[in-house]
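Recap from last week: sequence in, structure out.
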Amino acid sequence: MKLNDFVSKLDDRRIVAAIAESERHTSGQIRVFISEKQIEENAYERAKARFLKLGMEKTRHRNAVLIYFAPRSHKFAVVGDIAVHERCGDDFWRQLIQAMGENLKARHFTEAVVLAVEKCGALLAAHFPPEPGGTDELPNQVERD
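Predicted structure tokens:
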């Protein structure tokens, strides 16, 4: 997938709305990041580094998720913080990546992102309910480098 093709077909408003809706039901946090760079290393390793650079490990309950795309490299990954991974295990991540991959191969880019946001949101809601007076700890906009 070409970077411009991927980026031009993303509906940022729909993605941000999906993040906001998902976060209404949880104290967890979700972010989407798109790298415009060619990456050679494993997408998961790059996503973990970006997770830390964005300060996502600093959420109160360590319950943030980063959905990461590197379209020039045809790579993507999803990273959950410690508390998220402890509750979902590897099967959740494998199933999520498979579902996202199917949408990406079909060139349903926004749908792939929204699907990931919704599935992560449902997981977070099941394990991290919203808190009275809770605040949105991280921005919801799609981040790019």
